[in-house]
Structure formats: structure tokens, C-alpha cells
Amino acid sequence: MNGRSVLLANVQFYSSKEGDSILVENGRIAAIGREYELRKKAKKSVLVYDCEGSFVIPGFVDAHMHMLSYASFRNQIDLRNVSSIEELKELVVKRTKKLGPKKWIIGRGWDQEKFAEKRMPNRWDLDEAAPDNPVFLVRVCGHIAVVNSYALRLAKLTDNTPDPPGGVLGREDGRLNGLLYEEAIDIVRKLIGRPSFDEAVDLIASALDEAASYGLVELHAMSVDAYEYELLKYMDEKGLLKLRIKAYLEPPLAYGMRKYYHGCMLEVCGVKLFLDGSFGARTAYLRKPYSDSPDTRGILLIKSEDIITLIREADRRGLDVAVHAIGDGAIEELLKAVEKNGLANIRLEHASLTPPDIIEKIFKLKIPVSVQPHFILSDWWIVERLGSERSRWVYAFKSLLSRGITIGASSDAPVEPLNPWLGAYAAADRGLRENLQLWNCSAGEALSINEAMQIYVSGWKLARKGRKSGIAGLSINENMRADLIVIENKLPSSCNDLKNAKVKITLVDGRIVHIQKRK
Fold first, then answer.
1. Nearest to 121 by CA among 132, 130, 112, 133
2. Are 150 and 135 in contact (CB under 8 A)?
3. Residue 447 and residue 428 in contact, taking contact as beta carbons nearer than 8 Å
4. 3-state secondary structure labels for all residues of 119-135
5. What single string gives the DSSP state of each residue in 354-418?
6. In terms of DSSP bridges, do strands 21-25 and 28-33 run parallel, antiparallel, or are they unpaired?
């Protein structure tokens, strides 16, 4: 689905060919050269944009996000900057007044490490704020939620309810405290329901508009279930997906389907598996216990033999497997299974703790990695959790790149902001300006400005089919696919430039999907 011919005039770019303009036709870069030359080559119907000396680079890819969750999150309470339980309660009270009694109060993004009280919220906190509404608030990592007594009653959870498989019901003195860990979250989540089909279509369309405004041209949608799959398929068939979507399905859906959809802008690429949890919940699976909680190493959610079976079954069906593994223990389990059984359809999600031996094994097995640079800023407490020695190898992007490992950057939205420029800033700054301890442990892992942008361009490589051909670096060359960003001003040359970058125009397959409104 290619748009009209477009001439981006008066632009700067990296290229092996000199020029000040780029001609786009039939979804590809038809020619690079001087404006007057390209005007002669262009069709009469060409759209000409004077970009006033702005810089053009290939479009960005978010290699790991959650499409419907993010679209829905935009209508929920944003708790990411809340600094106390009292402030959290005030936001809950405000939402109850807006919605009225008995309506679900839903929010996401709290982090107990930021709270003045230095503890997690519990059911009794939420009962004070919303005695007449069920409340469901997900931690920033997505691996813990807290609910109130109203929600526990609706879910028929009592002090005598056993922990579900793969999950934990939080307790204090034998009583449920409202905290839900891992699979236990779904017990309550299922009660909340989803937006209607039409509402969900509108929510996703709005989220795609936002993504395009940041220069994103492709999104890898993770853990897609049957409802989200039908939504995306419908939107693709109706021409409502302005960005390319690569879907990684939940196991029950992926292994239950006989045929996988590949439309104009939507392609089913794989299945998403979870090996462990998160650092924030202390459920990421480590080789050695947590430094600030020596009684636990986290949780390994799938046994090695089951990992092998699931990956082989996906390969038989022509699917990649995106494997969530944050802790070094979980990554090690995966790498052992891959090496022993010659598995090749893997992409590693997060890979947050990668000491040298693991980096070497990832390189040897040629496994591409999806990383989330903004975790650097959100996990500002990571040195206390893992100790300085291990933290040296947390979010070790420079070491991964230097070893020749393919990495693609992402947001994990709604866990982190969708804006890739904020992620690039985190990768290049590495907490220096935020005075994070992690900078003192691992300053050498900071990326250059260009590298920080490059890892957002590289995301297409994580899909197996994308590893054979595609964009190289930040350069623009003739005949490459016309997925392009026109940056508002110059190419960013500092961390501050990255943080404040704006996009004038975004093109996907030669179609203009975003154009900045004139001030």
C-alpha cells in the first residue's frame, strides 16, 4: 500500500550519494540528488516538502511493546511519577468521584521504591480511598498488582485461597494483603473486561497516531491474545493500521491456530514466552540471591524441558519465539536449552543481566536481543537490589554491541514511555544527569548518540525474516524501503538533543503517516 510520490527537498542525511533531496516513489527511495534534478525525474503529481535543512534518518522500530495494553493505559490513572502512597490514594479518590460507585478504578505505573513510605501499597490503603469501588493498580513492571477488598470479594479470593500455579497471593499475618504476583494478577484482571470492539479500535488508532508522531514506523506487539489479534486483523483489513505491526501471540492462541495472518501492515511472526519476572518484583530469576533479599533468587516460570518443547513446536509452525528472560539465571537456562538442542528460532527479550560468559554465549548462538533502555532510569534502585559487582553487567548495551550481537531497542509500553527519543536518551546518558549509582558502576556501557538512535533503527532485524535484508545504520540509500523520519532540526548530537527531539514528518512505505502541525 504505497502512497503518492513524495519529494523531500532541502534535507540533510547520511548517504554514499551526494544531494540535498530525496525522491520517494512506489514505497521506496527512487533517487537521491539535487532538488532541481529530482523535480525533473518526479511524476507531475509529486508532493514536494521543503524541509528547511532538517535531517532525515531511517524510521524507528519499537521491538517490544504491548499494543492494546498501551492503548488502554492512555485512559487509565498514570501512576509512574507518584511519590507516596498518600498521593496514590488521592488519585484513586479523584477517579472514583469522576466515575461514581461500583465502577472499576484502574491504574498502572506505581513503584514502591519512589514512595516516601518505602513500602508497597496494600488493600487497606485502597479501601480507605475507594470503599465503594473495585480497585486494580498494576506496578510499573507489570509483574505485581494491588487490589482492594472490594476487588478481592468480586474475585472470590479469601485468606484460605491457595496460590495459583505460577503466581503468589500476598499475605500479612496469614491474611490477604491485596498484592498479586505474576499469574495471580490474571485472577482479577479477567473480571475487569475489555473495551468494546469499536472503542478498542479507536484506542489503538489513537495510539498509532502518537507512535507515528515520534517517528516510529514499526511496532512489535507482544503477548497478543485472541481479542487483540481480531482487532489488529480487522484494522489491517480496513486499512486502519498506519504503522507496520509484527505480532507475537500468547501460547494458547499461537499453538491453537492452523494458519497465521500476513496482511498489508500486520504479520504474525511468533509466540511470546515468559521464563521469569522482573527486578522490581524480585521475580527475575538470578544465579545467586538478591543482594537486598538473600532469601530469594526469583522465579523460573518454565522448566528447561518445557522450554525446548515449546520452542520446537513454534519452529515446526514457522514461528519465532520471543523469550522473556531478565535475570542471568533465566537467560542461562534458555541458552543451555538452545545450545543443547540446536534451536534457531529465538529472540531474547530484555536480557537485563548479562555478565561476560552470557554475552559470549549469546554471540556464539547468534541470538538477537530486544532491550529497553528506559529501564536504566526506572530501575534507579538496581545497584541496591543486585550489588555493584553484578550491576556492572545490567543493561550492558555497549558490551552487547561491541561483541557483534544484534540488538533492537524498545519501550515495553505501557511499562515505559512509548517515545523512543526518551529511550535513546537513557541509553546515551545512562543515569549520569540523574546521579544514579548505576552510572558509577557501569559508565562504560553508555552508548554514543548515534548508537543510541541506531538501536531503534535495528529492530527490524529481530524478526527472523528481517535478518536477511534491510536498513544498515542511519544512512539513506537509493532503493531502500521508504520508512523515514524528518527530524525537526539538526541530527541530535547531545543527550539533551535526544531528550528533546521532535519529528516533522514520518513516512511508512512512502506514505506520510505523520506531519507536524505548524506552530
1. 112
2. yes
3. yes
4. CCCCHHHHHHHCCCCCE
5. --HHHHHHHHHHT--EEE-TTHHHHTTTHHHHH-HHHHTTBT-HHHHHHTT--EEE---TTSS-S
6. antiparallel
Radius of gyration from C-alpha coordinates of the chain = 23
Q: Which residues contact 142 (CB under 8 A, 6 or more apart)?
A: 108, 278, 415
Task: State the Cα–Cα distance between residues 362 and 336, nearest whole angstrom.
Answer: 11
**Contact present, 222 and 65 (Cβ < 8 Å):** yes
Give me the amino acid identity at 466: G
What is the pLDDT averaged over residues 325-354?
96
* pTM of the full structure: 0.91
Q: How confident is the model at residue 465 (pLDDT cuts 50, 70, 90)?
A: low
On whether the CB atoms of residues 159 and 196 are closer than 8 A, the answer is no
Q: How many CA atoms lie within 13 A of 232 on its CB side?
A: 33
State how far Cα 276 lies from the chain centre: 17
Query: Residue 518 CA to chain centroid, in angstroms?
Result: 30
Contact 509, 2 (CB under 8 A): yes
Closest CA to 348 of 285, 357, 411, 338: 338
Could you tell me the end-to-end alpha-carbon distance of the chain, in angstroms, rounded to an integer? 31
Which amino acid appears at position 56 of this protein? Answer: V
**Category of 73 on φ-ψ map: left (φ > 0), alpha (ψ -120 to 50) or beta:** alpha
Nearest partner of 216 among 67, 65, 60, judged by Cα: 60
CA pair distance 320, 335, nearest whole angstrom: 16
Give the CA-trace dihedral at 60, 71, 140, 460, to 10 degrees: -20
For residue 356, which of 304, 398, 306 has the smallest C-alpha distance? 398
Residue 33, strand partner residues: 21
Place of cell 506514505: 511
Which one has a higher pLDDT value, 469 or 109?
Answer: 109
Question: Does residue 135 contact residue 129 with C-beta atoms inside 8 Å?
Answer: yes
Alpha-carbon separation of residue 395 from 299, 359, 364 (angstroms): 20, 11, 19
* Region for residue 351 given its phi and psi (left: phi exceeds 0; alpha: psi -120 to 50; beta: otherwise): left
pLDDT tens digits along 472-490: 589 999 999 999 999 998 9
Residue 73 sits at the vertex; the CA angle it makes with 67 and 77, to the nearest 5 degrees, is 170
Phi first, then psi, for residue 358 (nearest 5°) are -75, -40
Contact between 280 and 111 (Cβ < 8 Å): yes
Q: Decide: residue 259, CB within 10 A, 0-12 exposed, 13-18 middle, 19+ buried.
A: exposed
Residue 211 near residue 219, CB atoms below 8 Å: yes
In this structure, which amino acid lies at residue 296?
T
CA atoms of 367 and 365, how far apart (whole Å): 6
CA 175 to CA 160: how far, in whole Å?
8
pLDDT at 466 exceeding the cut of 90: no
Q: What does residue 213 show for φ and ψ, rounded to 5 degrees?
A: -65, -20
Other residues' Cβ atoms within 10 Å of the Cβ of residue 483 = 29
